[in-house]
């Protein structure tokens, strides 16, 4: 599936049936299978482009975030997930496949969604792991600067504990938390070049999200895992560098 297969025009004025039904399933999982506490939804504007920046712990992060976000959201999902029944579900829900070796098509599609007033969700860390946001990829800053969208940090907690695989599904009724934070200030310094503005936005998103996650973990008592099972398998060359 190409990223262009997501039709952005449907995101602002009308919600695709698959998207609406998919969110219903996501809410059922979040609140029926697991015990997900959701706070801060009043920080999400009722309309207009919004970019959600969420930390990434495990395989459940995307489905839970998709289900509890009050507005229809298009998440950037690694293209390897678009296979078999899971891939069919992702296509049905209008999610955006991203090839981490070439993120340009996904970013272009996500930008179109934002330009049509929609909501896009990104995991800036790029991989599941500790979820402490010690790094962030450049793509989300490119989207923020080029779209002018409101950027909200989102803390996802409880989906993975220390010692659990990043593919682990928590036991039913485990307590999870999703906290939507206040919009981040990404204003560039006067006279900043485009490169400087992108770098500043990338760091502002990383530090803002990291701070929000740390505070949310303290508030909820849901600590972040201390291990990073996928770290040894990662290639440091996989970061898209949009211009």
TrEMBL record:
Residues 219-243 are annotated as: Disordered. Residues 234-243 have a biased composition (Low complexity). One of its GO terms (biological process) is phosphatidic acid biosynthetic process. It comes from the Bacteria. Keywords: Acyltransferase, Transferase. SUPFAM superfamilies: Glycerol-3-phosphate (1)-acyltransferase. Residues 50-159 form the Phospholipid/glycerol acyltransferase domain. Transmembrane segments: none annotated. GO terms for cellular component: plasma membrane. GO terms for molecular function: 1-acylglycerol-3-phosphate O-acyltransferase activity. This is Glycerol acyltransferase. It comes from Cellulomonas cellasea DSM 20118.
